[in-house]
Amino acid sequence: MRALLLITFAALRLGAQGVSVGVDGAQNQGASLAAAGQFVALAFAATAAGGTDVYFAASLDGGASFRAPVRVNATPGDARMSGEQPPRLALVARRGGLPDVVIVWSTKAPEGTRLLFARSRDGGRSFGASALVPGSDGAGNRGWESITVDAAGKVGVLWLDHRESAKSKAMSAAMPEMKHDPTAQAESSKLYFASLDDAQPRVITGGVCYCCKTSLVTAADGSIYGAWRHVYPGSQRDIALTVSRDGGRTFSPPAKVSDDHWQFDGCPENGPALAVDHEGRVHVAWPTPADGKTGSPLALFHAMSKDGKTFTPRVRVPNKGPASHVQMAFGADGALTLVWDEITTAGRKIRAARAQADAAGNVRFSELTALDTEPGTYPVIAATPSGMVVAWVKPEGAASVIAVRRIAP
């Protein structure tokens, strides 16, 4: 028998402005958010004794309350989740009704992992059969996915794929005398893109950092932007961006967003975030040590591009402590809101800031204090007419819930 579903309002958990969503007694984590008007879609993973499942909950009032969650994955307990690879969701507009909900997640496979998706055509009350994301069934591990939908309703998925890395590891085991070269080793890790309507994926580039999440967004003109952490010569872990102007059929060569000089032979588990403003400019936010030194605490930075090739100099976001897991979205007022988690003396807390860009692209940040006292990790954000909705993983005893709160527009 499945675990009981638990939904409670603010009076019991977060105060009058928030709710919490989750499966009772489980580790509820890996939240993703999307919104269309007052319809707010929340996907998350719940791990209990029977394994990990993907759940979905919908709000019809801008995030003030949520329906009881429903399980998405067809095979109970088969989902695979980490902080950098939660289930991802997108909303596909339907004329005269609630949007379709499409959710992508990582699951176990005979030789590693693969990506599955499911679609709801009734506003998230039920989901169809789980199906394979095209081209994601190779050997080895894959995931760290992101998802987007264009104006025509076509859904695209971006992910990191290590099928060639699995072969390289086998060769290294057979030839242990080979010298370790992080940059060369990273070339076998690839960045893939696929439309859920296509039979074959596209390989965009190699040289990706092994386990930092990707980010994917579609602009009003149909351009598709993808960002990830790339491994440059000298094992420098910098953020790269690519753009497709033809609906995902081809992508531009990787463009380095900022030369941060972070030499790190490992995975930071801190990928970038993307958002596009009403002018069509793409904004990138990411964590990196301010001085590029491995032992230094992570800071947050922002840069912007008008063409997907050149970027404004990075600007620091006003974080107070070591900062991670940034996400962002534009509100109805045109302001950009960023959320992240920060290490404090009392554990990890949720932080937020707002940014306004002038006509020249200069960005000015101001701190938002509404979430400063909230404990938790991995926040996500979506915009509604009533304000910005933020969700994050909140510890609760031996388990955790997905906390959801609406902050000022």
Keywords, separated by commas or semicolons:
disordered N terminus, Neuraminidase, 409 residues, 5-stranded antiparallel sheet, globular, 4% helix, mainly beta
Would you write up a description of this structure?
It contains two helices and 30 strands. It has 409 residues and is mainly beta. It has one domain (5-407): Neuraminidase (6 Propeller). The strands form seven sheets. It has a five-stranded antiparallel beta sheet with strand order 1-2-30-29-28, with no helix packed on it. The protein is globular.
- Helical region count? 2
What would CATH call the class? Mainly Beta
Assembly state: single chain
Helix content: under 10%
CATH topology: Neuraminidase
Return Rg in Å. Answer: 20 Å
Termini separation comes to 41 Å
Question: In percent, how much strand structure appears in the residues?
Answer: over 45%
Mean pLDDT: 90
Number of DSSP strand runs: 30
Structural class: mainly beta
What is the makeup of the main sheet?
5 strands, antiparallel
Number of domains: 1
CATH 2nd-level architecture = 6 Propeller
Strand order of the largest sheet: 1-2-30-29-28
User: Which residue ranges are poorly predicted, with pLDDT under 50 across at least 5 consecutive positions?
Assistant: 1-16, 170-178
User: Which of globular, elongated, flat, extended, rod-shaped describes the shape?
Assistant: globular
